[in-house]
Amino acid sequence: MRFENKVVIITGAGSGIGEATAKRFSQEGAIVVLAGRDTDKLNRVFSELSSNKALVIQTDVAIRESVKNMVDETIRHFGRIDILVNNAGLYVTGDLLSVSQEKGDEVLATNLNGVVNCSYFALPYLLKSKGSIVNNASVSGLGADWGGAYYCAAKGAVVNLTRAMALDYGSQGIRVNAVCPSLVLTPMTERFGDEILQHFDSRIPLKRAGKPSEVAAAIAFLASEDASFINGVNLPIDGGVTASNGQPNFN
Ligand SMILES: NC(=O)c1ccc[n+]([C@@H]2O[C@H](COP(=O)([O-])OP(=O)(O)OC[C@H]3O[C@@H](n4cnc5c(N)ncnc54)[C@H](O)[C@@H]3O)[C@@H](O)[C@H]2O)c1
User: For atom 8 of ligand 1, which residue has the closest CA?
Assistant: First the structure.
């Protein structure tokens, strides 16, 4: 029960890692704000939480007014914010020329500007509570993927934003960290198909995809007092992918 009555905002909480994170914080006593665009998905997660100390707020993280409303509603209901989990994200496959600029803009607006927007509006309250931010970046922000230009650009920016914010707000008692998952089976990746998933298995030393609950556990750790001296870290949750220097496996 590390988060008894702590107010935790989780974006993209209607599926995948965000859903697992909402369930983890709820199990540990938190008041959970489920933020996302699709209220049907959010209401389903709400109904499966272990406690009814929760609130659904329809939010598009790419739109500033929508994020301001998310924060205002959270304060109106609960009076404080202790933890912000910037999890909402979109994936698009393709090199720079093969992705339409509209789609590319949407990826940057969600995966990067979304983190900026939510942090911007939540920070005044996090400064009061001496709270913590955990971003969901990716191993795609630590090194690049073939055919993932926009996604890698956004996630790389989130990785360095995490460091910059850790520097700027650490002295005011706020910790900012990120998780960097490799392949995790969620609605985002389930459509990849068996062949692509097998390629991933060949590159992941643990020989399997991650589970949303395994990323949620790391997010909860970074947000908790167990991580009280951890600030500015981009933690790979990757079964060992980033332990490789990229050279081929002959064994
Ligand atoms: N699944 C993986 O392999 C993997 C690996 C590394 C990082 N990630 C990151 O984890 C995060 C969660 O992804 P997931 O794998 O759980 O996929 P997911 O598609 O299940 O979850 C993403 C959620 O974000 C929501 N969302 C998208 N755009 C939004 C917006 N503008 N405003 C509010 N909500 C929005 C979606 O509705 C969805 O519920 C993403 O940031 C993703 O980039 C995932």
Answer: 138
Cite the beta strand spans of the chain per DSSP E.
7-11, 31-36, 54-58, 83-86, 132-136, 175-181, 234-237
134: exposed, middle or buried (Cβ count in 10 Å: 0-12, 13-18, 19+): buried
pTM above 0.90? yes
Instruction: Tell me which of 15, 140, 151, 208 to substitute to probe ligand 1's pocket, judged by most ligand atoms within 8 Å of the beta carbon.
Output: 15
Our answer to whether residue 151 is catalytic in this structure is yes
- Count of CB atoms within 10 A of residue 87's CB? 30
Q: Which structure tokens are listed for 6?
A: 């702590």
How far, in Å, CA of 23 to CA of 111, rounded?
A: 22
Average pLDDT, 10 consecutive residues per value, the chain (251 residues): 97 98 98 98 97 97 98 98 98 97 98 99 98 98 97 98 98 98 94 86 93 98 98 98 93 84
Q: What is the layout of strands, in order, in the sheet containing 234-237?
A: 54-58, 31-36, 7-11, 83-86, 132-136, 175-181, 234-237
**Residue 12's closest CA among 204, 215, 162?**
215
What is the Cα–Cα distance from 116 to 110, expressed in whole angstroms? 10
Name the residue of 90, 117, 208, 241 whose CB sits within 8 Å of the most ligand 1 atoms, as the mutation to test its pocket: 90
Contact (Cβ atoms closer than 8 angstroms) between residue 166 and residue 133: no
Question: Running DSSP on this structure, what letter comes out for residue 35?
Answer: E
Report how far residue 70's alpha carbon sits from residue 74's, in angstroms, rounded to the nearest whole number: 6
Measured in angstroms, how far is the CA atom of residue 31 from the centroid of ligand 1?
Answer: 21
